[in-house]
Design brief:
Number of strands: 16
Structural class: alpha+beta
Order of helices and strands: HHEEHEEEEHEHEHEEEEEHEEHEHHHHH
Distance between the termini: 36 Å
Oligomer: single chain
Helix content: 55-70%
Largest sheet: 12 strands, mixed
Number of helices: 13
Radius of gyration: 33 Å
Shape: elongated
């Protein structure tokens, strides 16, 4: 059985005897591992944030989104879905839990002498709080009867409240949207920002009033949810038949939110993998640096190797000593790199006010890769040292 204790002891003493060289050689591995850990952890944190944001907006495996166009192009399609389509789906398709249309327009709001244009003014149905899991925290949401009865009531987001009413409650106040009078009946719970969009800078009116107030007749998109995930394929088939019968052509497309989550997950995983692979190149550079330094060390310590061989050291002992030095450098660099990478990712994600997700899998892989790098780039210098002839080595002068 090979005794590794003595080569490990000699390798440690040799590295400690050349502290500055050891530190500088280790830095390449430290930077490489830290970069991989930081980027992978940031990628995981960003993925967690995006998926949480999507889930927070009511997206679930029982959700279906209907959009205009065939869905194959990148340009904005012609809007083909109508308010009547929404009514038909709600009345004729079975196993539907909620139907939520979005009629998007621009609404100039006037309250007294104050005027404000929110980021979004939407015509929606009474199912909005249930479909998007965003209820009214003050006042209430409008009802089906108010939507069907074209009641001029409005629910507004927190950003709109701050810009128009300051710290005062807007409930019961009258505002005008594009000159049409509305009564504020509710304030939405705060959702925060999604990427660069302020999801609280919105105004919601009954979908039946979208044409009168916003001048839009067509629906931007429609969300349908089913009572059970298993009903999604059947409901999609029924909706497709119904809309084809109404439009006489396929000028719409549908996708499930489970599919959207999978696509988003795959894209973010691919981006994280690409960035991490680029960062991992620095590990390769660090390994080449280790090999260079070890080759220099073999040259400088030729007489030392000759003396060791002269007093009985075998090729295997010399080989193991230099391989151990290489492995100790990479392993210590990996441990230090993981610590720095973890702290860096935590600090950056905290500064961005995002959840810090520590990539423990990446840390384990980085340690394994560092060990392989140490072995691979340490073997050649160790073989050169082991093959030195003791007589030639003793005669060698730097």
């Amino acid at each position: 059985m090979i005794n590794l204790v003595e080569p490990l002891k000699l390798a440690s003493q040799s590295l400690l005897a050349n502290k500055l060289r050891t530190i500088l050689t280790t830095m390449g591995v430290v930077i490489g591992v830290a970069a991989v850990i930081t980027l992978v952890s940031m990628g995981e944190g960003a993925k967690s944030y995006v998926l949480n944001q999507i889930s927070g907006w009511g997206v679930g495996s029982n959700s279906i989104t209907i959009q205009p166009g065939e869905g194959s192009g990148t340009s904005i399609p012609e809007l083909t879905l109508t308010y009547e389509d929404m009514i038909a789906i709600r009345d004729k398709v079975k196993k539907i839990q909620y139907v939520m249309p979005e009629l998007v327009g621009r609404g100039r709001i006037k309250y007294g002498k104050k005027e404000y244009t929110p980021g979004y003014t939407l015509g929606v149905s009474q199912d909005y709080p249930l479909a998007y899991k965003q209820k009214a925290v003050e006042g209430r949401f409008f009802s089906l009867a108010e939507d069907n009865g074209r009641k001029r009531v409005v629910v507004i987001g927190k950003t709109v409240v701050r810009n128009l009413f300051g710290n005062f409650s807007p409930i019961g106040e009258k505002i005008k949207i594009n000159g049409i009078g509305y009564l504020v009946i509710g304030v939405l719970e705060e959702k925060g920002a999604m990427l660069s969009y302020d999801m609280d800078d919105m105004v919601l009116i009954p979908s039946s009033l979208a044409e009168l107030t916003l001048g839009v007749k067509k629906i931007w998109e429609m969300m349908v949810t089913t009572y059970d995930d298993k009903d999604v394929p059947e409901v999609m088939s029924e909706i497709e038949k119904l809309l084809f019968a109404r439009h006489r052509k396929i000028d719409f497309h549908m996708h499930t939110q489970a599919g959207l989550i999978d696509i988003t997950n795959n894209i973010l995983n691919a981006l994280t993998g690409i960035v991490s692979a680029i960062a991992a190149i620095s590990l390769l550079v660090g390994g080449i640096g280790i090999m260079n330094i070890m080759l220099v060390a073999v040259t400088e310590r030729t007489r030392e190797i000759g003396i060791r061989k002269a007093i009985g050291a075998k090729r295997r002992d010399i080989f193991l000593q230099f391989v151990m030095e290489s492995i100790l450098i990479t392993i210590s660099g990996a441990v230090l790199g993981i610590s720095i990478g973890t702290l860096a990712s935590w600090g950056i994600m905290s500064a961005l006010k995002l959840e810090a997700v520590i990539a423990y899998n990446a840390a384990a892989i980085a340690c394994f890769v560092a060990l392989i790098v140490g072995l691979f780039f340490g073997v050649y210098p160790a073989m050169r040292a082991a093959r030195l002839d003791p007589v030639d080595a003793l005669r060698f002068e730097v």
